[in-house]
Sequence to fold (222 residues):
Amino acid sequence: MTLDDLDALMMARFSCRAYRSDPVPRQTIEAIVDTARRVPSWCNAQPWQLTITSGKETEAFRSALRQQAMSGAHDPDLAFPASYPGVYGDRRRTCGWQLYDAVGVTKGDREASNRQAMRNFDLFDAPHCAIVSSPAELGAYGALDCGGFVTAFCLAAEAAGVATIPQAAVASFAPFLHSYFNIPEDRLILCAISFGYADMGDPANGFRTTRAPVDEIVEWRG
Ligand SMILES: Cc1cc2nc3c(=O)[nH]c(=O)nc-3n(C[C@H](O)[C@H](O)[C@H](O)COP(=O)(O)O)c2cc1C
Fold:
């Protein structure tokens, strides 16, 4: 295993926003979780817990979530950023426009952009969804550890030929998720990861995001 191998895996992964309907075998999902759980966590607390749906459970969840999204108010356990100032806003707009350009949403077409945003609540038609939660008492560090787990899950899945997308949008309906999946109130619902096999013919999967260069993100001392 070389850095080039890992780099190739990192370059291959992308957030998949259109899926085929065929399910991922349980054995493959278990192998992905088995690999992802190797990430480090503070005190080795391993705060992540997953609720993973398949088959009819995904279909029932998708339809309940969509209904919730059309009628319910956003109420995430972990407050969403109030704003994305400066360069963060620039990057957010850039990747948003990449998606809109790919799927043909034009500037000012609110109906089309809302329709694309609502695809989050179809789980982009993925056959599986994992809800990721962390104990509230572990606070920001629990969430930090879970962030590492989410990344590892996405990379392990990519290595297994399975496409993924982390979704904070799903976590915006936290009270509904707690009640629907019976996730205790003392756990913070952080995000979902929808996953399955990518529909590579769909334009939503036809673009790749960029990254700031190393010198922009490192202040070298010495
Ligand atoms: C914690 C987290 C939450 C995210 N939430 C959403 C989401 O709700 N909807 C969405 O379309 N993409 C979501 N994304 C995907 C990001 O937009 C994506 O990772 C970013 O634009 C970089 O693109 P890439 O993953 O294709 O490399 C999320 C990613 C992360 C890590």
Remarks:
- Residues 135 and 187 are 4 Å apart (CA to CA).
- The chain has nine helices and four strands.
- The two ends are 30 Å apart (CA to CA).
- The domain at 16-82+122-205 is CATH 3.40.109.10 (NADH Oxidase).
